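Before relying on records like the one below, remember that each one covers exactly one chain. Contacts with other chains, cofactors or solvent are not represented anywhere in the record.
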Amino acid sequence: MNVKSTIVRHSLSEITSLRERGDDRTSGDAPEPVSLGAEFWKSARVVVPSGKTSVHLRLDSDVVEWFRARGKGHLTRMNAVLRAYVEVQKHSA
């Protein structure tokens, strides 16, 4: 299968030129980014994910379909739910 990638890489100067010419694809009504503020960055921390383990897992069909219905990344979301559960259990023990 020969699929053309939709990812295009540009340098900052190329992006600036595109914007000056009006050729960028940024929506004109896109919201402006909001600063997180200095307080956020004072307590921010880098979290390096641990390694992944491949498992064979049998799940209820309706649970899998519910996650799949919400689009791409359903396995990542399932992992996030499990991660949240583990974190709560760690702190409640």
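The mean pLDDT is 86.
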